[in-house]
Amino acid sequence: MDTTINIHFLGASGTVTGSKFLLESRDKNILIDCGLFQGLKHLRELNWQQLPVEASDIDLVLLTHGHLDHTGFLPRLFNMGFSGDVWGTAPTLDIAEIILRDSAKIQEEDAKRANEEGFSKHSPAEPLYTTDDVEHTLSFFKPKETGSWIPVTPDIKARFQNSGHILGATFIELDISGRRVVFSGDVGRPDDLLLRDPVKPGRADVLFLECTYGDRLHSAESMEEKLLRIIKDTTDRGGTLIIPSFAVERAQLLMFMLWRLKRDNKISSDLPVILDSPMGANALSVFRKYPDWHKLSPDDVSEMTQSTHIVRSFKETWEIIDNNSPKIVIAGSGMVTGGRVLTYLQQYADRPETTVLLAGYQAEGTRGRQMLDGADEIKFYGKYYTVNARIEILDGLSAHADKNELIDWVSDIHHTPEKVFLIHGEPQTLDMMRVKLKDTYGWSAEIPTLFQITTID
User: What are the structural domains of the chain?
Assistant: First the structure.
């Protein structure tokens, strides 16, 4: 029997974004994740190109979780000829639905604006995909349970296991003719305020390990204390605190922390906390729908929601902007690549009393990374905007495991995998994790390049 597996590294290889890994076996061609490239221009341009494989030859897509860099290419894949099912946990598919609809809406709005204002080199500017494309994609979603093996073919089965990254996030195990292949997805952190601890894999003959924070340790400083300090510093200057935030998990975590600070009388109950992210507001419904996936009680969800003003219209966004009194605004997107946060930065980034608080990983080439690196101006909507605001980061809020947490996550794999592939990281980070795995477990790991093809016999 032919047990050869060909692996196509179609994304998140030598970079953090665009997660896509195609496994070709005798029985089935399975794509793990189908993410959009973000950040650097040469990566974003890949979203517009044809894949180096035929989409019609892919039989099945398995999703580790709902984030855009793991799901955002799905409508393009269907437009290219894919016609199979998309499997993931129920909350993953619900989150992917929210994110894909939001992504299409933003792309349509950005294309319309570019055409009206003439700042695109394309004539006409077009969205990568439309809301109609997303609706077509959603009809192929098939929710799956965690913890049980699911037959794919007589010789292939799959299992989803909680990875603790965001609501519904999993790592994926494939048993292919007796060989265990493990895709980490994005690994979360133990003792998260909102989410259950990640499950650890017990076996991996072939391991794909994400390395987003594989070169560093998260701060041991209390994140609530740091957040409190930043809030007081900003409001004492009469400024507004703008928090670009990922809409799923991060926005809800910030709401929870801010509600607790108000509840404990550490900040004034009169200080407005505003969530201006349609996607973040929609994600709250997913928290209510899947209580077994997180630690919050129904009362917690209700009270933190009541403590937050949720913006319902773009008109309301401008009313908030025009009010110069101190406030906290949580707005998408988390890496400042688009969304409502750009509207706030248009008006507030040049004010020295403003603080911009980055609350997660900032990929190379994103505006969030530029501000973190000290840029004095950022460009969007065809114009440059001065940055005089203070820039802070809450790196301890990351939903990604750090170097030691990743090493611990694989600690229950007591044999040496025949192959270890380090993915979803920047080059230096990947190399540091390669050395750490060698020193800790004696494992030799490979750092694949984008569009590499590897055969495992």
Answer: 5-216+401-456 (3.60.15.10), 223-397 (3.40.50.10890)
